[in-house]
Amino acid sequence: MANYDVIVIGAGPGGYVAAIRCAQLGLKTACVEGRETLGGTCLNVGCIPSKALLHASHQLHEAEHNFAKMGLKGKAPSVDWKQMLAYKDDVIGQNTKGIEFLFKKNKIDWLKGWGSIPEAGKVKVGDEVHEAKNIIIASGSEPSSLPNVEVDEKVVVTSTGALELGKVPKKLVVIGAGVIGLELGSVYARLGSEVTVVEFLDAITPGMDGEVQKNFQRILKKQGLSFIMGAAVQSVEASKTKAKVNYKLRKDDSEHQLDADCVLVATGRKPYTDGLGLEALGVEMTERGQIRTNAHWQTNVKGIYAIGDAIEGPMLAHKAEDEGMAAAEVIAGKHGHVNYGVIPGVIYTHPEVSNVGETEESLKAAGRAYKVGKFSFMGNGRAKAVFAGEGFVKLLADKETDRILGAHIIGPAAGDLIHEICVAMEFGASAEDLALTCHAHPTYSEAVREAALACGDGAIHA
Ligand code: FAD
Ligand code: NAI
């Protein structure tokens, strides 16, 4: 048994970042993790492995579709799936070991095993009970299930199984046109699978800017993904090697069936709080099973904080990290802060899709007068040189004050470009501030400046 200032439960991006910040602020810190490796969902079965497979499959796509155009002749490489998975596992290993190194460097004790909270101020791991002045719960999330769909992680899989399939399936049915479905659907489409996405709503990626949704879906269709929209999946019948997906079209209630070699269930994730003992402690939860916290990440039980996917808000690694740092600062007596209005979202398909702040839809609903500055990547020399002219930057600014309210990008490096706008928003900048900033040529970033110019007197290359 040991005494700590802080014990963090869970070593995902929320938990490990919280632990590091606590240690940096001079607090004696431990982090409990039940997995064999640190890094949580993100490093082990989420962000990092999915990006490795997106990168590898994109290279194949480039070789198949664009190399010859540049005078690079010869057959495109064939896929050695085992090697691709080994590369992905190596990337995971490098990253999870990196967190172990950071724990040692910051003198954070890794308490190996599953933790519970028998009472405020105590954390039990195995037979040991440790004392902690403060506890941060960062227990993350897990895939949510669908009625009448049994996941075996072989034929009917969640994202976890989809990152280590035995082989590339001939026919893949993806249930849910959200971030996971489209990222992993893209991977398998590039590797040669026939991919059909079945979505309950009439638009993909719910909550995103409507214009981006339409363009994104059109681009994905061109890449070979098929979509069945407005379709509610009723059940999946699976054998050891095949599956049938039964769905009903919402418009007429007609019943249909799809054959598949593999079914990816990507219908959202839910908070994971099993085994922590929260009910007995009286920790308040929301109706959606999230741990309820106040503006300082405190639960209703003194000394117990919660962050990341286990609480309200977008289920994103960087949101969890920001909350981890902020909660640590609150515990250390400082002023931890997260600006929830400026949390970017990125979909790592090709082209990438990114967003921050308001959408046209949300501004209309709020009755706020706004202007739109839009610039197509077709007017960006660098994008055209690398076959990435599809897509646009769309900037939303207040009609009167010109203050930037949001941005939506579909195009090359959209996930990086968005941060210029995030910084501008943090500083309360106007579109004119961006437009007056010299941007290097030839870069994709010029498209952001052009969109800002389009909010004023007009873009130059439009
Ligand atoms: P988690 O990362 O889920 O970590 C929680 C950890 O707590 C786990 O390791 C778990 O084992 C441990 N734990 C739980 N209970 C206990 C206990 N009682 N005792 C000990 N340990 C416990 N987000 C992005 O921002 N960008 C992306 O590109 C992205 N890609 C994704 C791709 C996929 C396929 C998936 C599934 C998710 C992706 N996400 C992405 C979401 C991202 O992974 C999560 O938002 C993020 O991991 C949440 O961090 P967290 O620290 O709250 O929880
Ligand atoms: P999601 O919430 O993004 O999308 C789920 C989709 O499934 C929705 O479009 C929904 O309408 C649909 N759906 C639900 N029930 C259905 C049914 N019965 N039949 C057909 N469609 C149905 O969830 P997803 O993609 O599983 O991702 C989970 C979380 O992981 C997200 O919150 C996301 O933030 C995070 N994530 C983030 C990534 C990133 O930042 N690049 C990458 C992957 C995941």
At the first level of CATH, the class of the largest domain is Alpha Beta
SS strand fraction: 15-25%
What is the second-level CATH architecture of the largest domain?
Answer: 3-Layer(bba) Sandwich
Q: Which secondary-structure class do the elements indicate?
A: alpha/beta
Bound molecules: flavin-adenine dinucleotide, 1,4-dihydronicotinamide adenine dinucleotide
The proportion of residues forming helix, as a percent range, comes to 25-40%
How does the major sheet shape up? 7 strands, mixed
Quickly count the helices: 14
Chain oligomer state = single chain
CATH homologous superfamily annotation of the largest domain: FAD/NAD(P)-binding domain
Radius of gyration: 23 Å
Provide a compact summary of the structure.
The chain has 14 helices and 22 strands. By secondary structure, the chain is an alpha/beta fold.
Explained architecture:
The protein is α/β, with parallel strands linked by helices and 462 residues long. The chain has three domains: 202 residues, FAD/NAD(P)-binding domain (3-Layer(bba) Sandwich), CATH 3.50.50; 112 residues, FAD/NAD(P)-binding domain (3-Layer(bba) Sandwich); 110 residues, Enolase-like, domain 1. Helices cover 32% and strands 24% of the residues. Strands 1, 2, 3, 4, 5, 6 and 17 form a seven-stranded mixed sheet that branches. Strand 12 and strand 13 form a beta hairpin. Helix 1 runs parallel beside helix 9 and helix 3 packs parallel to helix 6. The termini are far apart. The model has no long low-confidence stretch (mean pLDDT 97). Bound molecules: flavin-adenine dinucleotide and 1,4-dihydronicotinamide adenine dinucleotide.
